[in-house]
Design the sequence.
């Protein structure tokens, strides 16, 4: 018989419990948004295109798609009651929030102080129309170089003019994510040959690459809009030409789409001085005079602008005979996909002010 004894078993150690995950920072809920609006006596207005985001998960999605690294200066246009502002402050170094509504602009800093007191010093509220911003608007904030990222819930009625204006005046912008009307998102990202390709598509391609990043349903807004919204992500790239100015090329784009169903020869007759000179310019640019504007990419329009600059002026001492050949493609029927948002694309176009949240 063995006198060996079985050693007593050691007490079983409890398995380690996973540490609780910290809850995400609080964002504005539907109740918060409505309470703030009641407190301020604010009712969303169509004049300023105000539709407030009331869903925190939508805010987190937008901030995530913006791909912020925590060190950047972000520009937000139309912060409204601050739903997106709080999310941006969590993921960026600085936020410049541009709001035209004086009541909303006055409340925003207080909302941030209540919900993110530790980040309140990283916010600058600018009560201003975004279409009137200049590079000097940001000279005394941060490093003075201007914001690097645009993240905004833009009012439907001015989305395209605001995006193009900011890209023009702020070379510091490297990327952005904007929420706009879903149809506008498709137009900004459209390519040549598409039925919705037009002025916004071409002008955006001058120095950016745009792609659609998603769709946002109507129910995450108060009040609920009639149509869904689209998310557009853009990244800055080199300008399409280092010899021609933006204005020169954009003038050709505006002329080419002034009447979409006409040939380029007919559309550019005004800017070129005559149909004959327009045809010569187009041939010099390697473009078929019978082509239409919606078939060209930004490179084609840049080539036309270069040829127009180089083309000899017409002899104005002799009367120019009228072009006897009518344009068989002319169609006076209004085009439902024409660019209604592009500045300067029609006579006496009134540009509305930029509001708070869409």
Sequence:
């Amino acid at each position: 018989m063995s006198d060996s004894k079985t050693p007593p078993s050691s007490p079983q150690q409890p398995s380690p419990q996973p540490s609780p995950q910290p809850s995400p920072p609080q964002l504005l809920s539907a109740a918060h948004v409505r309470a703030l609006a009641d407190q301020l006596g604010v009712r969303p207005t169509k004049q300023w295109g105000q539709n407030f985001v009331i869903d925190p998960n939508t805010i987190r999605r937008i901030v995530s798609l913006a791909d912020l690294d925590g060190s950047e200066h972000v520009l937000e246009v139309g912060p409204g009651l601050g739903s997106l502002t709080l999310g941006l402050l969590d993921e960026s170094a600085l936020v410049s929030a541009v709001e035209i509504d004086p009541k909303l602009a006055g409340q925003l800093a207080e909302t941030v102080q209540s919900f993110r007191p530790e980040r309140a010093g990283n916010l600058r509220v600018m009560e201003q129309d975004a279409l009137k911003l200049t590079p000097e608007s940001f000279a005394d904030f941060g490093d003075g170089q201007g914001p690097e990222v645009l993240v905004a819930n833009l009012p439907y009625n001015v989305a395209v003019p605001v995006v193009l204006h900011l890209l023009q005046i702020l070379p510091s912008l490297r990327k952005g994510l904007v929420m706009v009307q879903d149809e506008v998102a498709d137009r900004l990202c459209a390519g040549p040959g598409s039925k919705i390709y037009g002025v916004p598509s071409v002008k955006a391609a001058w120095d950016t690459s745009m792609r659609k990043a998603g769709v946002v349903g109507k129910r995450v807004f108060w009040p609920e809009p009639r149509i869904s919204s689209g998310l557009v992500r853009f990244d800055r790239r080199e300008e399409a030409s280092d010899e021609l100015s933006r204005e020169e090329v954009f003038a050709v784009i505006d002329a080419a789409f002034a009447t979409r169903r006409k040939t380029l020869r007919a559309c550019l007759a005004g800017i070129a001085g005559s149909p004959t000179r327009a045809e010569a310019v187009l041939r010099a640019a390697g473009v078929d005079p019978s082509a239409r504007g919606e078939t060209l990419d930004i490179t084609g329009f840049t080539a036309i602008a270069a040829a127009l600059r180089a083309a000899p002026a017409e002899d104005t001492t002799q009367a120019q005979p009228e072009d006897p050949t009518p344009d068989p493609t002319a169609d006076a029927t209004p085009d439902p996909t024409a660019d209604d948002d592009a500045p300067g694309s029609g006579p006496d176009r009134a540009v509305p002010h930029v509001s708070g949240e869409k």
In short: The chain has twelve helices and nine strands. The two ends are 89 Å apart (CA to CA).
